[in-house]
């Protein structure tokens, strides 16, 4: 299948559409309109139609969208039929929470290895995931062919660890540290700053009320 170039904002909405389509399919619903989708996922129907238009004719005027066909299409687009193993680097409080979560609502993403400096947990199994010492990180990432890493280490060592990840061919980093890490252009970094998100929420509540963003 040829790669479809789509805006980043659209790409972020695709998993939301996919999850709702799974719910519809599991409930036995055969078709859905853009208006119904809009009400469910809180994205206006014009945006949904524009997002879908990047992939060609996915629906029919007056009929809407066939749920199973649309679900099959986004399954392939999002590689939902392929299991992707990711690694967690940093098993502190947040790291432990992520291990417990381990993408249970997804069938195609799984944390399969974790790394930390704490000798009390290295060499143990935490939430079903083996925890290796940091000294084994580069070897294990190569051995397990892991290309995506969740980074939850202290900010003081985030760049050093990132440089080591780049050395072994990691292609994507979900960065939970407050540091904006520096990587080559071919590495994708997704920053998740929980403090910033909370402060932004508080700001909007204080200044604009509770309207959903």
Key descriptive features of the protein:
about 210 residues; alpha/beta; Arc Repressor Mutant, subunit A; Rossmann fold
Question: What does this 3D model show about the protein?
Answer:
With 213 residues, this protein is α/β, with parallel strands linked by helices. The protein folds into two domains: 8-76, Arc Repressor Mutant, subunit A (Orthogonal Bundle), CATH 1.10.10.10; 84-196, NAD(P)-binding Rossmann-like Domain (Rossmann fold, 3-Layer(aba) Sandwich), CATH 3.40.50.720. The protein is 43% helix and 17% strand. It is built from eight helices and nine strands. Strands 5-6-4-3-7-8-9 form a seven-stranded mixed sheet. Strand 3, helix 5 (93-101) and strand 4 form a beta-alpha-beta unit. Helix 1 (8-26) crosses helix 4 (67-77) and helix 2 packs across helix 3. It is globular, with a radius of gyration of 20 Å.
CATH homology superfamily of the largest domain: NAD(P)-binding Rossmann-like Domain
In the residues, how many domains can be counted? 2
The CATH topology of the largest domain corresponds to: Rossmann fold
The sequence of SSEs as H and E is HEHHEHEHEEEHEHEEH
Quick one: CATH class of the largest domain?
Alpha Beta
Q: What topology, given as strand order, has the largest sheet?
A: 5-6-4-3-7-8-9
Helix content: 40-55%
Structural class: alpha/beta
Total helical elements:
8
Counted beta strands: 9
Mean pLDDT: 87
Uncertain residue ranges: none
Give the distance, in angstroms, between the N- and C-terminal Cα atoms. Answer: 34 Å
The largest pleated sheet is described as: 7 strands, mixed
């Amino acid at each position: 299948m040829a790669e479809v170039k789509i805006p980043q904002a659209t790409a972020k909405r695709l998993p939301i559409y996919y999850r709702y389509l799974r719910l519809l399919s599991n409930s036995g619903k055969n078709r859905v309109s853009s208006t119904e989708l809009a009400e469910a996922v809180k994205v206006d129907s014009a945006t949904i139609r524009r997002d879908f238009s990047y992939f060609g004719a996915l629906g029919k005027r007056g009929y809407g969208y066939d749920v199973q066909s649309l679900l099959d299409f986004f399954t392939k687009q999002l590689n939902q039929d392929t299991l992707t193993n990711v690694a967690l680097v940093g098993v502190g409080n947040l790291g432990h929470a992520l291990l417990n979560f381990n993408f249970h609502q997804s069938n195609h993403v799984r944390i399969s290895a974790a790394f930390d400096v704490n000798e009390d947990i290295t060499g143990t199994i935490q939430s079903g995931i083996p925890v290796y010492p940091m000294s084994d990180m580069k070897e294990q990432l190569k051995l397990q062919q892991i290309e995506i890493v969740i980074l939850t280490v202290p900010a003081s060592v985030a760049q050093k660890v990132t440089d080591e990840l780049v050395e072994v061919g990691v292609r994507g980093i979900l960065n939970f540290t407050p540091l904006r890490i520096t990587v080559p252009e071919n590495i994708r970094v997704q920053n998740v700053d929980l403090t910033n998100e909370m402060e932004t929420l508080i700001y909007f509540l204080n200044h604009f009320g509770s309207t959903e963003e």
